[in-house]
Amino acid sequence: MEIPISKWLDACLDRGATSEEACARIAALCRDVGRKFIGDVAMNFLSVMQRKLLAKEWEPRHLEAALAAADDAQLANFLRIELEFHLKRRENIELATANKLEALLKFEDSSGAVDPELFGEIAALYVKVGDYRNSLYYLRRAFELFPNFSFWTRRQAIANAIYAQAPRDVYQRELNVSLAGSCTTAFLRPFLLAAGLAREMKLNIYEADFGVYAQEILNPESGLYKHNPDAILLLFESHDFNCGLRAPQSKVDEYVAKIKNLRELALERSSACLIHTGLEIPPFGAWGGLEYTEPDGRVRRMQEINLRLSENLPSGVAFLLPSQLAELHDGEWTRNRDWYVAKQYPAPQATPVLATAFASNLAAFFGLSKRVLVMDLDNTAWGGVVGEDGPFNLHIGPTFSDGESFTAFQQYAKGLQLKGVLLAVCSKNNESDALQAFNRNDMILKRDDFVAFRANWQDKATNLRSIAQELSLGLDTFVFVDDNPAERALIRKELPEVVTPEFDNQHWKIVPTLRRGMYFETIAITKEDRERHESYRSRAKVREMSTSATNLKDYLASLDMSATIENVTEQNVTRVAQLINKTNQFNFTTRRFSVDEARRRSTDDKWYCRAFSLQDAQTLHGLVGVLLARKDSAQMWTIDSFVMSCRVIGRELEDVMLADVQRAAREAGVATLRGLYIPTEKNEQVKDFYAKRGFTPGEAEGEWLFDVASQAPTTCDVIRILEG
Amino acid sequence: MDPNLAILTQVASDILGRYDLELTPETRISTVKGWDSVALVKILLTLETQLGVEFETYDIPNIQTVGDVVKMMEKAQA
């Protein structure tokens, strides 16, 4: 039931609202609205009520009247919280705020309510008490529910407050972003800020004036470059390709060449990555279907432009196809009126989807995409309960009306796996029952598709922690899908860093929810992405073996490992940058930079840039280590970036890497090799690395020095070296 | 307080990030800190979503006062 707010307000805000009649009217309205109360309309009603109470146009007795009339427990609870707040706020606003926050959290806990308005309100209260980490958490949860445009707009103040006041460490990344477009970007900006927050990124946005993207890119002195961007976002729309009903080939060629040139120029002049949209398909026009079927029809031409702009994308560029995004938005993608009035594209209501797409691609460039999908089994991966119904009565595939939806989920998960996302199972089941189900030949997913498999009766938070440990990945890279609201609530409570999407308890909504969340965006599929699953699988096997191996060296030797060492070149620079930006644990300095910056260093003779690949008898692990040393002087080199993928931790490749730079330094006649350690929450494991390998502490904090001429270099006798 | 003015005050407070906003129909938009033409369009678009109405094409330069916006709201809901 949707009640327009105007009706509400007509009824309860007219003059004489202090009368008994008004109280009765409020009571009746509260009854009407019932369980819809924590919706958009109701929150508006609440805030107007707050305003009236503040202005003393209303008194607490009006709220009491409403409370008395509320026969819905949820509604009554809400009103009571509101009433208490107003009674207390006159005496002590801090205390009243703290109490209200506590009451709402309790309410969330007891009711299991999942409502963006509730989370938004909690986030706002957390801002008021100065707890930005929790505020960010609740804001993220609200955004995970895909609130509408009106929510995003009203809650902008929270995002702004977080931006202005929160300390740096609540974010995972802080990025400079330059934004330009052929339309106005004024609306996109606030949504982009918010979508960034939902991904724990602080975006410092420079916004070019309306429509001057070409000038900004052509002029090397422009604000776009002066902002020193980590990323450039360009928003194009169909009016930018100015043509009538028919467009000659020459016009298409000209437009494509123009955009490609600008793209190259922007990449050349900055070290930013670039994310840009293609053109949207304009609304059904005067020529209708002919606009597509005529060889020079404008819709056909725009498709051609999108195709040509998106083929062979240079590294460091991501392309967003508007029609794909429009499909994620339930509503119109463009709106004539807003284009005429404000040069607004896309439609305001669609802007959050676009902002989410930009933010997800930024997250992908800077290593914040999610990396693991953990799934429950019963009624999530298939219909039914395998322990009760038996493996052959599960609903899967076209024989059952709901079976195809489970198949679709498995297919989606398989698709994620093929682009490098890891899959894991976390299910309350006997392991043998769960495994039997995967033996069915109509299961899309097989046992071997999972890098971790927890079918047991332990609580799921414990299981998730152990999966994270086994994979050496942070829980903040996990997405957890479970049909059981109680399990989801448990994970949220115990492991708030895990993304736990809601899907109205309808299994067919799981896939749309995951799609819309865009948690797993990937910029390009590298060879390593395709091999990652295999690599982790063999790691799991290695781990099982290693617990029984008595002698670690013998065991490592038995793996028959060999490493390939190469310079950083055009062939591997994309992967090198990916590794630098994604690696958190085996990473000494956690420096992050773009593909372009990596490329620049690789061709600069002031840098020694090496990439390391590993293989063993069972698996090609691919490029898993990067070491960049800066040649400070003829006397001293500094190891600036030293990262290794967590899937090869414990195999001594790190010693191969260190030995390589030590050898190079010696050959160059360098006296001192300097190592750095900058501690973060996640790189504790490399803290003593240099000390254990003969480095001595330098003067500065985290500085380690190695005397190249007199000290013995590190050795590794379990990995053979193949020169690249 | 006029209900439309109450809603407008609420929406404008949220968008301008101010909690002390006091608007009357006579308030000139140009005198409200932060309320530029972009903010005005944002406010109008948000009002449309919240009221569930659609304004006619609006003529931004001619929207001078808070009362002008309130009139638009009334007309759209009539």
SSE diagram, text form:
The complex is a heterodimer of chains A (724) and B (78).
Chain A: H1 5-12, H2 20-33, H3 40-54, H4 60-69, H5 73-89, H6 93-111, H7 116-128, H8 132-144, H9 149-154, H10 156-165, E1 173-181, H11 188-198, E2 201-207, H12 213-218, H13 223-226, E3 231-235, H14 249-269, E4 273-277, H15 290-293, H16 298-310, E5 317-320, H17 322-326, H18 336-342, H19 351-365, E6 372-375, H20 386-389, H21 403-418, E7 422-428, H22 431-438, E8 450-456, H23 460-471, E9 478-481, H24 485-494, H25 510-517, H26 527-548, H27 552-558, E10 561-567, H28 573-582, H29 595-602, E11 607-615, E12 620-631, E13 636-644, H30 653-667, E14 672-676, H31 689-692, E15 696-697, E16 703-707, E17 719-723
Parallel strand pairs in A: 1-2, 1-3, 3-4, 4-5, 6-7, 6-9, 7-8, 10-17, 13-14
Antiparallel strand pairs in A: 10-11, 11-12, 12-13, 14-16, 15-16
Helix pairs in contact in A: 2-4, 4-5, 5-6, 6-7, 7-8, 7-10, 8-10, 11-19, 14-16
Chain B: H1 3-16, H2 37-51, H3 66-77
Helix pairs in contact in B: 1-2
At a glance:
The complex is a heterodimer of chains A (724) and B (78). Chain A is of the alpha/beta class.
In which range does the helix fraction of chain A lie? 40-55%
Name the CATH architecture of the largest domain in chain A.
3-Layer(aba) Sandwich
Q: List the secondary-structure elements of chain B in sequence, H or E.
A: HHH
- Architecture of chain B, CATH level 2? Orthogonal Bundle
**Could you describe the largest sheet of chain B, including whether it forms a barrel?**
none
Shape annotation of chain A: globular
The overall strand count of chain B is 0
Total number of β-strand segments of chain A?
Answer: 17
Number of helices of chain A: 31
Q: What can be said about the biggest beta sheet of chain A? A: 8 strands, mixed
Q: Give the end-to-end Cα distance of chain B, rounded to a whole number of Å.
A: 19 Å
Q: What integer is the average pLDDT of chain A?
A: 87
Largest interface: A-B, 37 and 25 residues
Query: Can you tell me the CATH class of chain B?
Result: Mainly Alpha
Q: Which class best fits the helix and strand makeup of chain B?
A: mainly alpha
Strand content of chain B: under 5%
